[in-house]
Design brief:
With 314 residues, this protein is α+β, with helices and mostly antiparallel strands. It contains 15 helices and six strands. α5 crosses α10, α5 packs across α11 and α11 packs across α13.
């Protein structure tokens, strides 16, 4: 027993628990996506908090199988995760879900201070990345991504960021401007009738805008709104069911969608680039939600078919 206690003590001395405030925030995120998140997206409660928390000196891996280079860091009673730790190798300001270790996607995120985020915003960001883990576990999701045919020989996920969508094309930018206008009308609508009319105008403008780009570009647009836009919508929707600070932050960022549309309109599609697609996707998800259709059920089978679902509203 004494030898076992000494070994465990040495392991904890090398790979100690990260600070309690961060672990408590992660436990809050778990509670949200396993409760409200599972009601929104069936099966969300089965998603493990597969996450590497990046501290100034060390990074700690939660709820993941043993990885070479990490040492055991005990059991976290807040998240109910077994922990592993190593010297920091990742950037302090990283916030993403990626295939960092064997076994699939893992969330990687720095402390709130390193990311210049409030605790409420930080927790919402972890929710966003947790939804990406949920997406990756949907049946056929990886095959649906591959079927888009957009990798163009890329051996990793760099194509997601570097795809040459024609953001700088003036005709494309002008066409997307009509989407911005209709999106603003939807967000500012005061009645169901106004929302329906704005949605119809948006769907028409969306079709006209995508007609300006190639079929591959259209598939990339549908990928981004399905992948990132729906993740943004989920993040904001679940944050509104969190604690008071999260609810206040989410309310402000819902209003911020309209602000973003105005910024896209003022600064140009060529400036916002991929970031604009996140905004459009979140708004499109809300249009489907407000329409009262079972879009989330369809999404789980066809994650890159948001456009087809919108067309059926008209």
């Amino acid at each position: 027993m004494m030898i076992l206690a000494w070994v465990m003590g040495m392991a904890l001395a090398v790979g100690e628990l990260p600070p309690e405030p961060q672990r408590a925030m992660l436990a809050d995120v778990q509670h949200l996506y396993r409760g409200a998140g599972n009601r929104l997206w069936p099966g969300f409660d089965k998603v493990l908090l597969d996450l590497v928390l990046i501290g100034p000196e060390r990074e700690t891996l939660f709820c993941h199988g043993a990885i070479k280079g990490f040492v055991p860091a005990g059991f976290d009673p807040l998240t109910k995760c077994a922990l592993q730790s190593r010297r920091r190798e990742l950037d302090l300001d990283l916030s993403a879900a990626a295939d960092l270790f064997p076994g699939g996607a893992t969330i990687a995120i720095g402390y709130p201070k390193a990311l210049d985020m409030s605790p409420a915003y930080w927790k919402a960001t972890v929710l966003h990345e947790a939804f990406h883990l949920y997406q990756s576990h949907l049946p056929g999701y990886a095959q649906a991504v591959a079927a888009l045919g957009l990798r163009d020989g890329s051996p990793d996920g760099s194509w997601l960021l570097n795809y040459p969508f024609p953001y700088a094309d003036p005709q494309v930018g002008a066409a997307f401007l009509a989407m911005d206008n209709a999106g603003l009308a939807f967000l500012e609508a005061r009645s169901p009738q106004e929302r329906r009319l704005a949605t119809q105008a948006y769907v028409a403008a969306r079709g006209a805008a995508l007609a300006k780009v190639s079929p591959a570009d259209q598939r990339y647009y549908e990928f981004q709104v399905g992948q990132e836009g729906v993740a943004r919508w989920t993040e904001l929707t679940l944050a509104r069911q969190g604690d008071a600070a999260m609810r206040e932050d989410a309310t402000g960022r819902w209003r911020g969608l309209a602000k973003s549309l105005r910024a896209i309109r003022g600064q140009g599609f060529s400036v916002w680039k991929r970031g604009a697609l996140y905004v459009y996707g979140a708004i499109e998800a809300e249009m489907l939600e407000q329409a009262g259709v079972k879009w989330r059920q369809e999404y789980r089978r066809h994650p890159f078919g948001i456009g087809d679902q919108l067309k059926r509203l008209n």
